[in-house]
Structure formats: C-alpha cells, structure tokens
Design brief:
Length: 166
C-alpha cells in the first residue's frame, strides 16, 4: 500500500520542463536553405520570424502557392529563391486591398517554413518574407521561433551562442 501511495504522489507532481537556453538580444542564425548566416534580432515583441527579401512574387506550381524572392541584405547576390508558401500572414491595423497582383501587397506577407540553426540546434520555423533592408538586422526571430528553440532572451547580452554549427 505504501508503494502505491508513493507512486501516486510522484504522478501528482508537475512535470518539470527543461530550462530554456538564455540567448542575447542579437545572435547569429544560419539559414541553410539560402546558404547564409545572419545577425538576427531576438524579438519577444514579434510573433513570427521575418527574413529580409525583395522582388517577392507569388506564383502557382502544380496547383500550390509558391513564392519567388531575392534576399534584401548587404552582401546578397542576385540569386533567386523559390519556396512553397505555408500561408499568407495578414498584418493588422492597415488597409487591406482586394486586388490580386503578382507582387505581394505589403500588408500581406508570404510565410515559408525554413530551417534555422542557432548554436547547435536546428528547427523548422515559419518565416515571413518582407523587405527589412532599412533595419539593422535582416532576420528577426519572433516568439514562435523562440519557443521552438526553447529560448529565453537577456536583452543586456549579445551574441552569446557560438556561430551556428548544425
């Protein structure tokens, strides 16, 4: 009887989640699918991750939505990337046009699933494509991606993880 009570007591204990890894406000993130490593801003105020892209065009391939884009970063070449669209993100608080153009409306952003490498961890996360060339960091890591990496952010620190090694 004592062993059953002891087992019951153990089962009633809350399951302890692994402690999050603490990162700085800025970290190096590898994006193998575009062959680049970026300085990224870890932003707990943003929901999704964003990658700086330009010449963003939606198109159909085999009945599915795809997106074609170029990186909008300092050292980017003119390489064109194509990726299947996971969904279209609608940005709140702005007027929503009804026209369907080849070039994406800035209030709607294509979201793709990309592998991101932080330290020695690699996870597939949703990343929206938007021109961030006027910002200091071409890649923004939002809350959803931070959860995937089980990350916490200390805004007083910078580049605490080693360069990506995935």
């Amino acid at each position: 009887m004592k062993s059953i009570l002891a087992l019951s007591a153990l089962l009633a204990l809350p399951v302890m989640a692994a402690e999050p890894t603490l990162y700085g406000r800025f970290e190096y993130i590898g994006v193998p699918e575009v062959g680049a490593t970026f300085q990224a801003k870890m932003d707990t105020g943003a929901l999704t991750a964003s990658l700086s892209a330009k010449d963003i065009q939606l198109f159909q391939r085999d009945g599915e939505d795809w997106v074609r884009f170029r990186l909008a970063t300092k050292d980017a070449d003119n390489k064109v990337f194509e990726h299947k669209v996971a969904r279209i993100s609608k940005i709140k608080g702005r007027s929503d046009g009804e026209e369907e153009d080849e070039v994406i409306d800035p209030t709607k952003r294509p979201v793709v699933e990309l592998e991101l490498c932080l330290g020695n961890q690699k996870h597939t996360v949703e990343v929206n494509l938007v021109d961030r060339s006027h910002f200091n960091y071409p890649l923004l890591i939002g809350v959803k991606a931070l959860r995937e990496f089980n990350a916490a952010v200390n805004p007083a620190r910078r580049f605490t993880a080693d360069k990506p090694d995935c």
